[in-house]
Write a structure and sequence with these properties.
alpha+beta; 5-stranded mixed beta sheet
């Protein structure tokens, strides 16, 4: 082993910088916390190129005295603590005195600062830890710090940075968290010259939630305010009906500092037991206040992990705070008839699709005096108006297919329209209808019997219409010599399991898992043919995401396009969905996008095929019929035929079995008929 050496100052600063400054978002976090500790009421954050080349933080806080400016960039120089006892009573966000020194070691910094008592301000410049300028300057009260060319002297760290869009989204996520933790401060975020966020700074947390996440998210929140044994819990939690498919929208703050705590999340979710759907997670913005001596925030360099002296009391306070809010403010769902009336137009104001030729209108007969005039003749509805077609065909028929509009779709155009999937899920108050026009024949068709004296015309061959059933037939090797064995439907158990008799066996089929697999196979087949069928949404769906989900979606737009989705950037942490697979309902699009974003975040991989499979898993699960839905006997029989006539339908995409069989021998043995 070599001799122990004391590292030079420049190397020691680089090591410290690695602990505190990992990316531009880390710089913004540290500098915003300094602005908050300085008592600022307005903070402006501006970045360019994801914060790699330019970061500016401006505040109207107390500023830095001229004599202290040079000391501020020395490692472990701080005004927050003076002795070891001060560590037990930390009320500020920063206290180590490492941030400015670490940032200055890997960037070029320009600082403008002025206190209220000083007549002139100070301009200070430092590059790579070396001072370059220190002079008098005119500037307003407060501090403005500009960070340029981050990691310019450490290229090894530069290569670990992501794309500018991803780094900018990470910075935006930091600004969101800081703004949520201090609603009394007005935050302004400028990204590449465009203002994307501004909070009012009125001290109301709901105003900040509205500014960051939008109206829909804010309307689904209810307020909570609770105190237990000097532990206070305040903020907002979501209504059970506004739960989300992931935990991405759970924000916990301890004494104004963002933290990550599994215990806090578990306590909050326990309060939602028996009130929230399985697979859904509540969202929240909760600020926890505890005495400083009962918590240790000096656990992690990023100060996001903390340790409580009595974690059970904190968990109890969170549980009862959420439980009381749900019992007091959560109300039953109500229908707003006024909104329904606005969406439903009067009958005489509705529009009808008409044929190309003009509609013939009969000449009205002379009316008698005081007689009611006849109703105006409305044009007839267009034939096959309710027939669905892929978005590519719709664009061609309506003239939307043009070079300017081709950029909206990255999929190959189809030559023939495809019908909607037979098992498409409909609303809860409607039972979906399955087309059985193309059932698999169990015996040869009889030829028609013509009379001897009548001429016989040879019928023209008609092309069999394409449907989901026709795709299913192509996957099953059934010939006329070996027709499928007859299937007899026995019934349905618990509105979930199909019971039928087939090939001397009793078969029990999970209808949701089976339909999910059928849809998954069809989407995979369309993918292999490079012809994913999608539908153009009349009303595009806007999905609000947190910044990590938002960045993940933008990085995988091409993957969504190959799966039948047309997703576009809507700005400020939101995306807009203009097209989706034909199997999906419009009401399910938002949940599907959220689940896909969460899955892509948890399973980070560059293998595109795996990403596509995850998207298909989520879409098939949402589009499949649900357990508990009432279905007709024909629908159940057709689904059973799809499962039993196709050897590929054995497991759902998540691995659960689709079918359980019991032979006649095993059944009779259970009843003692066979010894």
């Amino acid at each position: 082993m070599g001799r122990i050496n004391v590292l030079p100052k420049n190397i020691a600063e680089l090591i410290a910088a690695g602990e505190v400054v990992e990316r531009p978002a880390s710089v913004v976090k540290e500098l915003c916390e300094n602005s908050i500790d300085a008592g600022a009421t307005a903070v402006t954050v501006e970045i360019r190129n994801g914060g790699i080349t330019y970061i500016r933080i401006t505040d109207n806080g107390s500023g830095i005295f001229r004599d202290d400016v040079q000391k501020a960039f020395v490692s472990h120089a701080t005004s927050k603590i003076k002795s070891a006892s001060d560590l037990d009573n930390i009320f500020t966000l920063g206290f180590r005195g490492e941030a400015l020194a670490s940032i200055a070691a890997v960037s070029k910094i320009e600082l403008f600062t002025k206190t209220v008592s000083e007549e002139n301000g100070t301009f200070y410049s430092i590059e790579g830890g070396t001072e370059t300028k220190n002079e008098t300057a005119g500037c307003p009260d407060g501090t403005t710090i500009v960070v340029r060319d981050l990691f310019y002297n450490t290229p090894a760290r530069m290569k670990f940075l992501k794309k500018d869009v991803s780094e900018a989204n990470a910075v935006a996520d930091v600004v969101d968290k800081v703004a949520l933790s201090h609603p009394e401060i007005s935050f302004r975020f400028i990204r590449d010259g465009k203002q994307t966020l501004i909070t009012p700074g009125d001290g109301k947390l709901l105003s900040v939630i509205y500014s960051i996440f939008g109206r829909t998210f804010a309307e689904g929140m209810i307020e909570t305010n609770y105190e237990l044994d000097r532990i206070g819990v305040s903020g907002f939690v979501c209504k059970p009906t506004s739960a989300r498919p992931s935990r991405a929208m759970q924000y916990f703050f301890l004494n104004g500092r963002f933290i990550k705590s599994r215990g806090c999340a578990a306590s909050m979710e326990n309060a939602y037991k028996n009130s929230i759907m399985v697979g859904k997670f509540p969202s929240c913005v909760l600020n926890i206040t505890v005495p400083p001596h009962t918590v240790d925030v000096n656990v992690h360099p990023a100060k996001t992990e903390v340790r409580f002296s009595d974690e059970r009391r904190v968990s109890s306070a969170i549980y009862y705070a959420v439980k009381n809010a749900l019992s007091e403010y959560d109300t039953r769902l109500q229908i707003d008839l006024a909104k329904v009336a606005q969406k439903t137009k009067p009958e005489n104001a509705q529009f009808y699709m008409v044929e190309d030729e003009p509609v013939k209108v009969k000449t009205p007969e002379p009316q008698k005096a005081f007689s009611r005039p006849p109703e105006p003749q409305r044009p007839l509805p267009k034939k096959d108006f309710w027939q669905s077609m892929p978005s590519e065909n719709f664009k061609k028929t309506t003239g939307l297919s043009s070079p300017e509009n081709d950029r909206l779709s990255h999929r190959k155009e189809e030559n023939e329209p495809d019908l909607v999937a037979a098992f498409k899920t409909k609303k809860a108050n409607e039972s979906f209808s399955l087309k059985n026009e193309e059932e698999i024949p169990t015996k040869p068709q009889n030829t028609p019997d013509f009379r001897k004296n009548e001429p016989v015309e040879k019928p023209e061959p008609q092309k069999e219409p394409e449907s989901e059933l026709s795709d299913f037939k192509s996957t099953v090797s059934i010939t006329e010599k070996q027709p499928p064995k007859p299937l007899r439907l026995l019934g349905e158990a618990f509105k979930t399991y199909i019971i039928c008799e087939y090939d001397g066996k009793v078969c029990i089929i999970d209808k949701h898992a089976a339909h999910e697999r059928v849809i998954f196979n069809r989407m995979k087949a369309e993918r292999e043919k490079k012809e994913p069928s999608s539908q153009l949404l009349i009303s595009p769906v806007t999905v609000t995401l947190n910044k990590n989900e938002y960045s993940t979606i933008l990085e995988n737009l091409d993957v969504f396009s190959k799966c039948g989705f047309l997703v576009e950037d809507f700005g400020n942490g939101a995306v807009i969905v203009r097209e989706c697979p034909m199997l999906l309902e419009e009401d399910d699009v938002q949940d599907v996008i959220l689940e896909i974003a969460n899955n892509l975040m948890l399973n980070k991989t560059d293998v595109q095929a795996e990403k596509i499979d995850r998207i298909y898993h989520t879409a098939a699960c949402k589009a499949a019929i649900k357990a508990g839905f009432k279905n007709s006997a024909d629908e159940l029989k057709t689904l059973a035929e799809r499962v039993l006539y196709n050897d590929d339908v054995r497991y759902c995409p998540h691995g659960r079995p689709v079918l359980i069989e019991m032979s006649r021998y095993d059944l009779e043995k259970q009843f003692g008929r066979i010894q």
